[in-house]
Specification:
Number of strands: 5
CATH superfamily of the largest domain: HAD superfamily/HAD-like
Order of helices and strands: HHHHHEHEHEHEEHH
Mean pLDDT: 90
Number of domains: 2
Largest sheet: 3 strands, parallel
Helix content: 40-55%
Strand content: 5-15%
Distance between the termini: 41 Å
Length: about 200
């Protein structure tokens, strides 16, 4: 919203909140009717990234037990690949923040896809990077757009409510947990354990 305001677009948080989890290529046209590939759209996206990295990233904290969950995945022998609508320059510091930089095997970002979530491009890129079939993979996500991006390619999604969405919004997920801590506590009965 800050970047939009810098370019004269006044948008209230309530308009943007239900779209969080989509990439800028989807969000910008929905919110202000502007193509993200237009000259102004590109300038807004550059400004948004700069604001996020300088103003908001330093204030972020990881969800409790996020690193422990990643360590558990690794201990189970699961190959970890990030599939995010964020840009690479944002993804790397976010992984570092949650303690996942040294655990996550591979990474795919909006830079690796034509279309961001909820389109399937990033999920497909992650499958290609991991060199696994869709039925051998599970996605861990926290927005309806994660579920929507994974379903058409045959990847089941385990959803976390920590993204601010309720069970109705996360419908289609094969399992739903409150957060990383909840999933870790119930890991033995989770789809991840059954897939390991």
């Amino acid at each position: 919203m800050d970047a939009l305001a810098d370019f004269g677009h006044s948008v209230v948080f309530e308009r943007v909140r239900p779209l969080i989890g989509k990439g800028g290529d989807k969000l910008m046209p929905e919110v202000i009717g502007l193509d993200s590939e237009s000259e102004e759209g590109k300038h807004i996206e550059e400004r948004r990234s700069k604001i996020f990295l300088e103003r908001y990233l330093p204030k972020l904290e990881p969800f409790p037990r996020a690193r422990e969950l990643l360590e558990r995945f690794r201990a189970e022998g699961l190959r970890l690949v990030v599939a995010t609508s964020a840009k690479k320059e944002e993804m790397d510091p976010l992984l570092k923040l949650c303690g996942g930089s040294d655990i996550v095997t591979d990474r795919t970002s909006s830079d690796d896809a034509e279309q961001s979530k909820p389109d399937t491009d990033i999920v497909t890129a992650a499958l290609d990077r991991a060199e696994v079939a869709a039925d051998e993979a599970l996605m861990l996500g926290d927005t309806p757009y994660d579920v929507e991006a994974a379903m058409p390619v045959g990847v089941g999604t385990v959803a976390l409510r920590s993204g601010g969405w309720d069970d109705t919004a996360l419908a289609g997920a094969i399992a739903i947990y409150a957060d990383a801590r909840d999933l870790l506590q119930r890991y033995e009965q989770s789809p991840f354990r059954r897939s390991g």
